[in-house]
Amino acid sequence: MSTDRKDIMTYDIYVQMVEGYNEQVRDLLAEDKTDNKLEIRSCNDDGLSLPNATLCSVTSTSDVLTLMKLGEVNHAVSCTALNNRSRHCHR
């Protein structure tokens, strides 16, 4: 951002991290790990939303990386017939 415009421009950046796993959408940044399943809702513009997904404010790339590490810890891992630690999901 240009230095002469920094006093008139403000912005907020937020991060969400979710995964689709076993036909469920889970919030990877939820504080309550027992209640992290999300409901998908339709939007007026033919889109989808996850209204209860955790929304974290960030101010630096370090904040984003910290949240990504937290999400990775909460990421679903389960066994399959071919692999003891399958990590197949859609993020």
Automatic annotation (TrEMBL):
The keyword Protein transport does not apply. GO terms for cellular component: microtubule cytoskeleton. GO terms for biological process: microtubule-based movement. It comes from the Eukaryota. The keyword Iron does not apply. Keywords: Motor protein. GO terms for molecular function: ATP binding; microtubule binding; microtubule motor activity. Belongs to the TRAFAC class myosin-kinesin ATPase superfamily. Kinesin family. This is Kinesin motor domain-containing protein. The lineage of its organism: Eukaryota, Viridiplantae, Streptophyta, Embryophyta, Tracheophyta.
